[in-house]
TrEMBL record:
Keywords: Hydrolase. It comes from Usitatibacter rugosus. This is Beta-lactamase-related domain-containing protein. Transmembrane segments: none annotated. Signal peptide: none annotated. Residues 17-38 are annotated as: Disordered.
Amino acid sequence: MSAFDEAITFSQAHEIPWPRDPAADPARWGVHHDDPPPFNRLRGPVHVRGGVSGVIRVRGKEVAAWGEPDRSDQTYSVAKTYLAILAGIAQSRGLLKADERVSDRLPGIGFDSEHNRAITWEHMLTQTSEWHGECFGMPDQVEHNRRVSHDPKPPAGKKGELRKLHAPGTYWEYNDVRINQLSLALLHLFRKPLPEVFLDEVLRPIGGGHDFRWEGYDDSWVEIDGKRIQSVPGGTHWGGGISISARDQARIGQLLLDGGAHEGRHLVPREWAQRMPVPSQTAPFYGLLTWLNGDGRMFADASRSSWFMFGAGGHTVWIDPDHDAVVVARWLDGAHSKEFVSHVARALG
């Protein structure tokens, strides 16, 4: 009998009320329905999902698993954190500096306006950029005034309603269009498909990658060095995004918990891995595309050192340095995530 049986049973009893087949009841599946028309539609592929699954690792070893931990499912905004990992790899190669302006490195891809010229890579990675424009036909305004469950501030207006922009670095907003613009910028840095980079530099070296997919929108193709490459989104808000197993998510969480190292080799620079959960000045609940529990507001029973990757649809990757643990939960109804975390916290001791 596992110490985590109570948490596992609880999660299995609280599956998110989305249909498992997106085609079965489209109006109850996904998050794009909340967007103002004509942007409330899917633009990339989606597929049938599995049920509640999860993996728990303690001190580097898997101690519990449930559901279908090897099933590859779309993971929504957990993919944002993978973009932050790629940015760290880019910095280690001299392709970017976190505090430099994106426009200095990449003119001509949407950072050249008077407002956008001041945006740094760190602004993009902390969701404080206030980037303004269109990314593959999607204006940033689509995500103005968006409210997500762990955002402590109330929205200033109706979602999609134009609001006054703030200076880059001074205002936090969860905005998937800006995340997609960050992904496009990283593609221009690496000059090769990001799914290929992520597989080669992260997933395969840690023993993962089976059935991994990272898909873009039907129209998100660009030409770089004479090659047609698909730019991929940092989530599945409008379809596409990353499909990955719970075990691979746990492997990635373990990599970050271990300071970016696997079997003595740093796949992600230690300094970068340590920086990812550092609170941003503008939004102390947020690091580099990661959520933080420093004040215990998100999860009172989780350690204050805990940090998280979240995705719509009930996806959580929880990294707990105090207990040397990584916890992955998938397709868990978000209304019950706090209770699930409390169950796991008690088992961790």
